[in-house]
Amino acid sequence: MVSINKFLIISILPFLTNSLPIVSKNQISDVIRYGEVNVDPNHSDDATYGEIYKLLTGSLTKRTDVQVCLGESDSSGSCISDDRNIDQLVSKIGGLITTRQGQCGDSGTFAVEASSLYYKYQSTGSDCRNTALPETDIGALKRWIKNQNGGKVCKNQCVQLKHGTGQWTGFVGFGTDENAVKNLQCDESINSHVSKCESGGNADI
Question: What superkingdom does the record give (predicted)?
Answer without folding.
Answer: Eukaryota
